[in-house]
């Protein structure tokens, strides 16, 4: 499956780093509010949110679970009708903060300050049709170890109506675009400071020309001035091996069609 570079939504760029679990509780669209199914309950036939089978992350983010989350590659029967140019709002339950930091505007701040919601725009004039709106939150609290980054993807099946002739460009493959040694995936959080606050989100960047955007990042007050303790040398993230044993490429079986409403136009798939 390919995810457009100019994605419908890209939380990894708008709200890049979140500490904690990242499953969606509900989604509000122009046609109504839809609840996510409990991971350990039966599929809700009225929900357009694809059901996950765990509250944990996609542990192997190089495999097929990175597309729509563990269990989320199975289509559901319903679609959420969404007006072209409208907002889609994702809701989470209460967000537990262990340590929000203060060096850069982390995604956690967006979620907590916006009362556990995040809104995104569907591009105005987007062609009518079936799309897959992909949500993703990335936790980096254990990302200093290889494969330690925690991705929480989830997919919403939508039907865009009252659109125009705007088409999404070709996207990036998922799985296939996240490397365990990418600088935004294998990262030491202690290395991020007021003087070194750059972070490169994995994957590709959202293109605002296609209507991507939503809840703005909050403005943070600068941290109080305190004497800096003497730093002790720390090891850098593990280096990528110069050679790896040959192995067969990871492949994923085609996603089966849903009984009532399949999302077959994979060229229209959106990412968040």
TrEMBL record:
Position of the signal peptide: 1-20
One Pfam short name: AA9
Protein name: AA9 family lytic polysaccharide monooxygenase
Key word Protein biosynthesis present: no
E.C. number: 1.14.99.56
Keyword Iron belongs to the record: no
Biased segments, Low complexity type: 241-254
Catalytic activity: [(1->4)-beta-D-glucosyl]n+m + reduced acceptor + O2 = 4-dehydro-beta-D-glucosyl-[(1->4)-beta-D-glucosyl]n-1 + [(1->4)-beta-D-glucosyl]m + acceptor + H2O
Protein function: Lytic polysaccharide monooxygenase (LMPO) that depolymerizes crystalline and amorphous polysaccharides via the oxidation of scissile alpha- or beta-(1-4)-glycosidic bonds, yielding C1 and/or C4 oxidation products. Catalysis by LPMOs requires the reduction of the active-site copper from Cu(II) to Cu(I) by a reducing agent and H(2)O(2) or O(2) as a cosubstrate.
GO cellular component, one term: extracellular region
Record localization: Secreted
Provenance organism: Hermanssonia centrifuga
Stretches for region Disordered: 210-254
Domain Auxiliary Activity family 9 catalytic: start-end pairs: 21-101, 106-199
Major localisation: secreted
GO function terms (MF aspect): metal ion binding; monooxygenase activity
